[in-house]
Design a protein that fits this description.
By secondary structure, this protein is α/β, with parallel strands linked by helices. 62% of the residues lie in helices and 7% in strands.
Length: 489
């Protein structure tokens, strides 16, 4: 298994890793600027995250590095407490993620619906495109034909050959053109100074006490949650792109190990990157080797070949990221708005709007999951039905309950009973019903106690074992002091 994951696609993985390494440089620098730290912090983080996750992660072919979502959460920490606390928070983030992996918390991903996933992907595609706009404003006119030429190479070259990934060819050709014919275009060197030395192991210079922990936790917890959420969602997307599976708990633990290593090497916390992961897959990367190569080549490029890398024109990298944006967006989801259930479309659109508005993937996904849960509960509550029949002598009525009784249908369950009817006996047939929660049990208590208060005998028949368990544990209607325990007494 390990041999296939590492060496099953050597040529494709090496070439894809080269493309990703080049594309990582401007993003790592940009994310460092967002976090308010030196560019080398983001570059060291991208190197460390990629190399470690290639070994420890649970999704071969997925790229992890410094990201915008994580950088946004670090701004106040860096501003208020400094760089050493950022390194410590990165290490603590890793410890929390390892804990999540050990506890199997990655299972919560099953609550993320397909509509939320689609919204997440579409929002990320929009954010990737919007992130390129600053490179297209207030620039020389040569930038635009350069971007157009880059896109032409990326999309037309595969029609003739796929031996070398077209994004890599695009970067090489446009760099050669800009060097041979000097023109007014921004280059990688314009973003910030590249590091000239290798990262070194260091222990954060902070007090090791409870006060420090209380400073770090409010930052480390959101970093751990956002990092895992983005990584696991990205893993699902790469699973779909490659028709292969991943180990989510291992990925959670791997993200933690990578962040711990990154903190000790002077980097900022990172996580999986959907944009770079899509570049990797589209460029032919499938195995762990592609991620490992991306990290190693990134370090070689910025430390050993910084002068050359600094001359790469930004239009070449913008063209690659626009390609990623176009390829990431689920265009079919727009056509599906007419045919999919309205609630599913609302969830997808809401996820997109919230993510784009806040630039926070975690908030958008949370909103999508909450809406999915609300709509699901509403749908299930609509399946609920009740009917009743009365005996020939008019003394006994039988109520038949069908469907799910829970917080969303409990009120409907209560409203179906006529408490003003003079009866000697009431039978509640629940053979086709299920009682799920405290709200359902409380509603049943109210029904039984209201009838008994008027001296009507109540008989509940046909309750399944699961419902009987929760009713026996939580209900009060059969207890000796039931009327005293009932609300309002």
């Amino acid at each position: 298994m390990w041999r296939e994951e590492w060496f099953g696609n050597v040529r494709g993985d090496i070439l894809a890793g080269l493309v990703v390494a080049l594309a990582l440089i401007p993003e790592a620098i940009a994310f460092s600027i967002i976090a308010g730290v030196d560019p080398k912090i983001g570059l060291y983080a991208s190197f460390s995250m990629a190399v470690v996750i290639a070994i420890a992660g649970g999704r071969p072919g997925m790229i992890s590095a410094a990201t915008a979502a994580m950088a946004l959460l670090m701004v106040d920490l860096v501003k208020d407490h400094g760089l050493e606390y950022l390194f410590a928070a990165t290490i603590l983030t890793g410890l929390l993620q390892i804990g999540a992996g050990v506890l199997g918390l990655a299972r919560v991903m099953r609550f993320v619906s397909n509509s939320v996933m689609t919204g997440f992907v579409n929002a990320l595609a929009i954010l990737i495109f919007l992130a390129q706009l600053p490179e297209l404003r207030d620039v020389g006119w040569q930038t635009y034909p350069m971007v157009a030429a880059g896109l032409a190479i990326i999309y037309l070259l595969p029609r003739f050959t796929t031996v070398i990934p077209s994004p890599l060819v695009s970067i090489i050709v446009l760099t050669a053109v800009s060097v041979a014919f000097p023109m007014e275009v921004r280059t990688v060197a314009d973003l910030g100074e590249l590091p000239s030395s290798l990262p070194v192991f260091l222990i954060p210079d902070i007090p090791f006490n409870l006060d420090t922990l209380l400073i770090l936790l409010p930052y480390a917890v959101p970093l751990a949650v956002v990092g895992l959420l983005e990584s696991l969602l990205t893993a699902s997307i790469v699973d779909d792109l490659t028709d292969t599976g991943s180990n989510r708990n291992r990925e959670s633990t791997g993200q933690g190990i990578a962040n711990i290593a990154t903190g000790f090497l002077g980097g900022m916390a990172g996580c999986a990157m959907i944009g770079q992961s899509v570049i990797n897959v589209k460029s032919g990367g499938r195995g762990r080797l592609s991620t490992f190569i991306a990290g190693i080549v990134l370090l070689i490029l910025v430390v050993g070949l910084g002068d050359i890398v600094g001359r790469v024109p930004m239009p070449a990298l913008v063209a690659v990221m626009i390609m990623v944006s176009i390829g990431t967006f689920s265009w079919g989801s727009i056509r599906s708005l007419r045919t999919h259930p309205r609630t599913s479309s609302v969830v997808m659109v809401a996820t997109v709007v919230v993510v784009v508005a806040t630039h926070n993937l975690a908030i958008g996904v949370l909103v999508g999951v909450l809406l999915s849960g609300i709509f699901f509960a509403w749908k299930i509550s609509q399946i609920f039905q009740m009917s009743s029949t009365i005996s020939d002598d008019g003394r006994r009525r039988t109520y038949v309950v069908k469907g799910q009784v829970f917080y969303a249908s409990a009120e409907q369950f209560l409203a179906a009973f006529d408490f003003h009817e003079a009866l000697e006996e009431v039978t509640i047939d629940v053979r086709q019903a299920h009682f799920w929660d405290l709200s359902a049990v409380a509603a049943l208590d109210k029904v039984v106690l209201k009838f008994r208060r008027d001296a009507t005998e109540v008989d509940i028949v046909g309750m399944n074992e699961a419902s009987a368990t929760i009713v026996d544990r939580l209900a009060i209607h059969d207890k000796p002091d039931a009327f005293d325990l009932a609300p309002g007494h």
